[in-house]
Specification:
- The chain is mainly α.
- The chain has 3 helices and no strands.
């Protein structure tokens, strides 16, 4: 994760904090945003599976 993106995410999270928020809440939100960013990048790079590919892979896992 780039430094600029990290700062953007932390500011975004900080704006939504409540007095009851914990450090774990912040970590979970940061992790979620990072995962979303990674997924979007994978999609841009064509690193996704079709529905049919997922079905075939799932069948192998369920053996």
């Amino acid at each position: 994760m780039k430094e600029v993106t990290l700062k953007k995410y932390l500011i975004q999270i900080a704006d939504k904090l409540t007095p009851e928020s914990t450090l774990e809440d912040v970590y979970e939100q940061l992790s979620l945003l990072s995962d979303i960013e990674e997924s979007e990048q994978q999609e841009k790079n064509g690193e996704t599976f079709s529905q049919k590919e997922v079905e075939n892979i799932s069948k192998e896992w369920l053996r």
